[in-house]
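Please, structure for the following, as tokens.
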Amino acid sequence: EQVRGGAVPLPALVTLGGSAGSVLLVDLEQTGSVALSGRDALMVLQGMVVELCTVPWADEVDVVVVGHPADAGGLDRLRTCASVGELVPEVRRRVRAQALIAADDGTGRFSEARWSDDESCWDPLVVVCFATAVEDEPDAVTELVDLVGDGAAGVAVVLAAPTGTARWSVVADDGSVDLLETTPTSAGGSSMTEEL
């Protein structure tokens, strides 16, 4: 099977932190859902959004922000949504459609199907819910997290508050970032720590 020439392998790759000589990157598309907490969480989250909307490898990522406290205009790839509940039907349709694309391709993961199917693949979607959205609509947030599962359908959810439902947790405090798998996969849980 041929690989599509212009495909970017990790379009939803973002920086969580770094230290002298190293950088901690995470592919949001593969995580499914991530909840951020800690004193530096807002800074990390805003950095993710700016990165997804400006770096060349993320040209094909759709970014939707819910509950941003200020005007989020000025970033071409970003759109805002009034509520998490309003976004749930769109995410449900997208997860179903993209899961079918991956199943038709035989890979089971949308990120892998993108490599061979140029015509029918949609761009990955990253939904970013700021703290007010997470706190105001906990049931809708839980539904979003359940819908995206492990990210196999090319949709990721990033939450600016701990929920207990997200697959991964990022704690950003005093210059360090801890990445913890909160919903273990069959391979077992994992964690990683990096300085900002």
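Helices lie at 28-31, 41-54, 84-105, 110-113, 131-136, 138-148. Residues 184-189, 191-196 have pLDDT under 50 and may be disordered.
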